[in-house]
Specification:
249 residues, alpha/beta, seven-stranded mixed β-sheet, binds zinc ion
Length: 249
């Protein structure tokens, strides 16, 4: 399995960073977690095809996490896709998402693949699927709207993505996390419904976390300066996500 950081910026995007979204590559088919800008161009840069994307999971429907969907679907149509695509979202957004697909006149395109919208209830931790050794679950985040974090287990390796959230006790209480990708919208400047690097370093038990990567980053925030102040046993585990960074899991 491989994780790719398709974008690493906060909602207002960045000079050199795109909005945060992730690609989890797996032999059972790859999963896009949210879709920010230019998914087609980024897949090309990575040497990947739209055909390998089997599913999309929307952690929440704030615009910075969803706006790349029309472009992805357009590219799948151009690429002659025939395999079905699954899109997961919160139950309360399912009708809205189906209406959005209608508004895009998707049913007017001579589209040859089925789009199946599936839902979860964000307040209840749930397994979305398990195929082979890989299982993907969602759990509630703390973002003031219906929003979920993501947990992927693959052959004993545990990867967690916080999505947009304040520090989350459900993440803190996990037994072990090999890789935690956590939003860090600011370094230490307080911002409602989000996390700071100061929060992340202090709130979680880093003896249980192998590695942390920060995403949802804001330009010109003093992340690097703050990392120098954080005790080395914690700071040595934390890095800033890089655009199109590929992480084997
Ligand atoms: Zn966001
Ligand atoms: Zn958000």
């Amino acid at each position: 399995m491989e994780l790719i950081l398709m974008g690493t910026a906060c909602a207002s995007s960045g000079r050199d960073r795109d909005n945060t979204y992730l690609l989890v590559r797996d032999t059972s088919g790859s999963t896009l977690i949210d879709i920010g800008g230019n998914p087609l161009g980024k897949l090309k840069t990575l040497g990947l095809s739209t055909h390998e994307v089997k599913r999309v999971v929307f952690t929440h429907v704030h615009i910075d996490h969803i706006y790349g969907l029309p472009s992805l679907l357009w590219g799948m149509w151009i690429d002659g896709r025939e395999d079905p695509l699954e899109i997961y979202c919160d139950e309360s957004e399912k009708e809205w998402l189906q209406n959005w697909l209608e508004l895009m006149k998707l049913t007017k395109w001579p589209i040859a693949f089925e789009i199946s919208v599936q839902s979860f209830q964000w307040e209840k931790p749930a397994l979305l699927w398990k195929e082979g050794e890989t299982a993907l679950s969602v759990f509630p985040s703390r973002h003031g709207v219906a929003a979920v974090g993501i947990q992927v287990e693959c052959g004993g390796t545990v990867f967690v993505y916080s999505t947009d959230t304040m520090p989350n006790p459900l993440i803190r209480d996990m037994d072990r996390i090999d890789l935690l990708v956590h939003e860090s919208t600011t370094a230490e400047r307080s911002l409602a419904m989000h996390s700071t690097l100061r929060d992340i370093a202090g709130y979680y038990d880093w003896s249980k976390i192998g590695r942390g990567i920060l995403v949802h980053l804001t330009d010109d925030e003093p992340y690097e300066d703050l990392l120098k102040e954080i005790p080395e046993p914690v700071s040595s585990k934390i890095s800033l996500g890089r655009e199109l960074e590929r992480i084997p899991l």
